[in-house]
């Protein structure tokens, strides 16, 4: 890939965080006895954002796309050939939000693809899919839209917000603009599925029932000390593994990348990933205390923050990496940043 015909670039990203920041004090008023309250996995951020009571994932994506429209024009968004989406908590259980998002953005794309298995690494998976489709001639422009909207809905339920896990997630959305061009080339992408771990993330409801059945009790993530230990071990291993795989192929040691952008489950992972890749804290974007765990929106929100703050210069190499759920998927992507259109 050495010319505009074959090269695919992530040329911009814009984001949206709903409402005013919600402080950790909000959860202290509800705090209940919880065997996992002292676990490192659930050390709460200072702030996070919550989706509004009537705000949909489609609303969030439309608001996130506003920055792209402002910088590139409505036609660039509306004329995109491919729309790739991921929503943490779909507005409707039977179908994804891609069709409604396309309509709201004024699009008539040839491809609308909803991703779910990518989880916290969905933006990386979206980059790989967009790159492959555009390079294969299926269009010139793709949008990758992700919405994390579970914090203000699942984790703010009356009985769930008493748990330690409730204070960690935050809500947000992002839209990435991918084009067949050499402006900000995607250098390499690595995605790995670990199917043996696919059943390890579960919904816990008391009394037990299937998630779709009516009944008392509110659902939350079924964490146990044993599960947390496994997730920590997998995440600590998988993110460096996919990162090294990408760096090996582009001929750059991880310690020499200019910026590391990861998902942000908790402070422990952030520290361990930096150490594994031999990177200083100054070259790893960290918005955990401002936004909490943004799940799939974490990478694009952090990337947008870094660009806006001037931490990313033209020609810099960005490494994006994440793992998903209980470790059933992980991905990494490298990008040579070409600068943002003002």
Automatic annotation (TrEMBL):
Chain ranges of the Beta-ketoacyl-[acyl-carrier-protein] synthase III C-terminal domain: 247-337
Gene3D superfamilies the record matches: 3.40.47.10
Record bears the keyword Zinc: no
Classification via Pfam families: ACP_syn_III, ACP_syn_III_C
InterPro entries on file: ACP_syn_III_C, ACP_syn_III_N, Thiolase-like
Domain Beta-ketoacyl-[acyl-carrier-protein] synthase III N-terminal: 117-195
Keywords: Acyltransferase, Transferase
Protein name (database record): 3-oxoacyl-ACP synthase
Protein source organism: Mycolicibacterium mageritense (Mycobacterium mageritense)
